Amino acid sequence: MVSTPAVPNLAFRRLRGSRSPGEFAAAVRRAAREIGEQVACDARYIGRVEAGEIRCPNYAYERVFLHMFPGLTLADLGFSPRDTVRGRASRTRADVRTAPAPLPNPTPVCSDTGDTSEESDVLRRAFMTNGTATMAAASLGLDIGGAPAVAGTVPRQLGEAEVNALEEAVRRIRLLDDRHGADGLYRRAAQPLRTAYALLDAGTATRGATADRLHAGAGELAITVGWLAHDSGRFDDARSHYAEALATARVAGDPGLEAHAFCNTSFLARDGGRHREAVRAAQAGRRAATELASPRLLSLLALREAGGWAGLGDRTGCEQSLGQAHTLFERGPSDDDPEWMSFFGEPELEVLQAQCRAALGDWSAAARHAYRATVLLDPHFTRNLALYRAELAMNLARAGFLDEAAAAGHQVLDLMDEVQSSRIQGMLAGMVRVLLPKRRTAEVGGFLDRQESAASTARRA
Fold it and tell me: Where is this region: Disordered (predicted)?
């Protein structure tokens, strides 16, 4: 096939104005932080855009650029339509892989009338991005703003609006998870997932690119809901949702979705103590990801594999995987990095190394990596900041730095009014068990008293 020559993006160059590529890249990173995104933009990336090498940005960059230049469209910024660049519609039937045996549908989750207003409005905000999306959501049988939708009505043909609504649901739910944790969100996030799979089962999707996007959106939503289950301690539910996403990926012949499903499956297996499964799932994810031009995705999967080796006590395997992860990470970001990987930067690299060191019993090294993660992380990501600080506190306690552990524990408690995560609560409970025999010091005793009070309040709520 003859490749299309790159056409310089003069519109984007004009928007940069008199700023250097490096200065403009810094402005892009600042704009990303304003809306809760994480992009590793540098002068080289700006140069590639202006040279026309990047004909359409990934979704994270798209949101940042549209935030920087309100009122403009991607076309105004000099980019090509996404469906003409990504090439999903060109996939042939011969590319579709053999699907595994059918898996059970995701477990229905009833909403809780006691949800906070933030939680109960998740779907309404996710699907009310514009009038068209709202109408699409109604046709999908979703609850919009408390008003009854067209329950049980499935459109004969799906179009752009319905798929956009599904993709936006994934983004909004992930954003709320970043800020508030998974516990409350999980009770609300199952409805769009059930609807998406009902549409797939009914065969109502159009052919070509729209059908591909519906499969990808449903799979990503299954992974997102699986993560909410995972983070809130519902491991069996999470395993079912990840398996559903994997089946969807294989039916659609989507290696990116398959790699994502295996990545999360590896993470879940590690947390569940199934370390051999964690290694194998990560290796399967790496095989799927070789079809994609994303060193950062391969780096994350190498880290997942390292976590499995560490859980098995295999220091050599862990070190080899960590080395591969660093080599791949240093190749930098790519425009082909999946949208869901926006969380994966230096802070996450550090905290995953901390987890490996902790599993191997290297508590001081684990604490150093966890500390770097807390320093590097943008504080806008409240849930991850609480998680990283909890990791730091536990590692400090295990390493014998008790006062420092208690101080880090106080920082975690400072954030728990905003964050609902059973994972973090479990880490704090584990830290308490380590510190209880040492409560004679004022710092440790003060933290234990505060944690006990917080836990008691949570139980009464």
Answer: 88-117
Query: What is the rounded average pLDDT of the residues 359-385?
Result: 91
SS3 144: strand
Distances (CA, A) of 8 to 26, 59, 80: 22, 21, 12
Asked if 83 contacts 213 with a C-beta cutoff of 8 angstroms, the reply is no
Could you identify the residue written with the tokens 């590319």? 95
DSSP 337-406: S-GGGGG-SHHHHHHHHHHHHHHTT-HHHHHHHHHHHHHHS-TT-HHHHHHHHHHHHHHHHHHT-HHHHH
Domain ranges of the chain: 10-87, 103-253, 275-344, 349-461
- Segments in 113-234 forming alpha helices (H): 117-120, 122-127, 131-139, 160-180, 183-202, 209-231
CATH number for the domain formed by residue range(s) 349-461: 1.25.40
Residue 331: CA count within 13 A, CB half-sphere: 16
Q: Mention every residue, 6+ apart, whose C-beta is less than 8 A from residue 347.
A: 372, 373, 374, 376, 377, 384, 388
pLDDT digits (tens, 9 = 90+) for 76-115: 999 988 666 543 333 333 333 333 333 233 333 333 333 4
Long-range CB contacts (within 8 A, 24+) of 436-445: 438/402, 441/402, 441/403, 441/406, 443/402, 443/403, 443/406, 443/407, 444/402, 444/403, 444/405, 444/406
Digit-coded pLDDT (tens) for 369-380 = 999 999 998 887
Indicate the length of the chain as a whole number. 461
Q: Which residue has the higher pLDDT, 208 or 236?
A: 236
Tokens of 351: 């905290």
What is the per-residue pLDDT across 6-48, written as a single tens digit (0 to 9) for each? 789 999 999 998 888 888 988 998 888 888 777 778 888 898 8
Which residues are 144's β-sheet partners? 147
The residue to which tokens 């109604």 are assigned: 138
Q: Is 175 exposed, middle or buried (0-12, 13-18, 19+ CB in 10 A)?
A: middle
What are the C-alpha distances in Å from 364 to residues 160, 178, 361, 429, 444?
A: 52, 28, 9, 20, 19
